[in-house]
Design goal:
single chain, FAD/NAD(P)-binding domain, 7-stranded mixed sheet, 5-stranded parallel sheet, 19 strands, 27% helix, elongated
Length: 321
């Protein structure tokens, strides 16, 4: 691996880094790129479980539109290696804070850092409907901005798991004139008059009753089957996974969290700085709606803030001496 040519790093082989980045997705790799270019000794700890792994492609990232998530990450790893950034395939299982941050890895090692960026993202819990998990990322989708163009004008279904699914049905109607909202676990009485008026204006058909499964023919979604035995022809089904933030490390450090409709996320400033001194976050670790392009941008912001923080901290220490 390419070694960092910063002379100050040559005296430190003890496993202490300027920055440890926990998470090797778009946010973590973007942060690592900035840190490496800033001549900081940096380690990325990557468990290898990106949220968008089920997708064959990612969209909406200028110059990378249509690229597979796996290729995007592979290129990112190559880029950070040019600047001496180290990457270890492992999982951070614990962290403590003393004079520095001690990050315990599942493989048994403990690494130390002056600053920490947590980009552990979130985990999607899919509705427990047979066939949904198997088709997720193919013709069972969650985001029209990510996949809407590729399935435009097809026959859409939306699986309601809460009244918020009405919003999803209204949004996807921008990509197809044929949208059916399957109420599934939501009772009709839970929909407001405004919901019903908007659904009617969008031409969205509302079907009550629990969804029992999907109809698959020749490895393609062809319909949605209800518990009463009726079936509806559909070629795309949108679902709303439950977002489970991966905040375990933040909680161990005592970071303040704030509740949102999509889970509890760290309280941060515009750079991603948390309420724990020396700890930043970026990507889906700080919010539900961070797309790949947002995550990369957030990683850049957090890293540049850390660079400034370390430079000023070292200068202040030198002045004090």
């Amino acid at each position: 691996m390419t070694q960092n040519t910063n002379p100050k790093d040559l005296k430190d082989t003890s496993g202490t880094y300027d920055v440890v980045v926990v998470g090797g997705g778009a946010a973590g790799l973007s942060a690592a790129l900035v840190l490496g270019r800033s001549r900081l000794r940096t380690l990325v700890v990557d468990a290898g479980e990106p949220r968008n792994a089920p997708s064959a492609h990612m969209q909406g990232y200028l110059t990378r539109d249509g690229m597979s998530p796996a290729e995007f990450l592979a290129l990112g790893r190559e880029e950070i290696a040019r600047y001496g950034v180290e990457l270890v395939r492992d999982r951070a299982v614990d962290v403590s804070r003393g004079e520095d941050f001690a990050v315990e890895l599942a493989g048994g090692d403990t690494v130390h850092a002056r600053r920490l960026i947590v980009t552990t993202g979130l985990r999607d819990e899919l509705p427990a409907v047979p066939g949904v998990a198997e088709r997720y990322g193919r013709d069972v989708l969650h985001c029209p901005f990510c996949h809407g163009w590729e399935v435009r004008d097809e026959h859409f279904g939306v699986l309601a798991t809460s009244p918020l699914s009405v919003h999803q049905a209204l949004m996807v109607s921008g990509w197809s004139d044929d949208v059916t909202l399957f109420l599934h676990t939501v009772a009709e009485r839970e929909l407001s008059d405004d919901d019903l008026r908007r659904l009617a204006a969008a031409g969205v058909k509302v079907v009550p009753g629990e969804v029992a499964g999907l109809r698959i023919e020749d490895d393609r979604l062809t319909g949605v089957r209800l518990a009463d035995g009726t079936a509806h022809d559909r070629t795309v089904l949108f679902v709303a996974p439950k977002a489970v933030p991966q905040t375990g490390l933040m909680e161990r450090l005592g970071a303040e969290l704030q509740e949102t409709p999509f889970g509890a996320y760290p309280v941060v400033d515009p750079t991603g700085r948390t309420t724990v001194p020396g700890v930043w976050t970026a990507g889906n670790a700080m919010g539900f709606a961070e797309q790949v392009v947002h995550a990369a941008s957030g990683g850049y912001r957090a890293a540049s803030a850390i660079v400034g923080d370390l430079i000023m901290s070292d200068l202040d220490a030198a002045v004090a001496e």
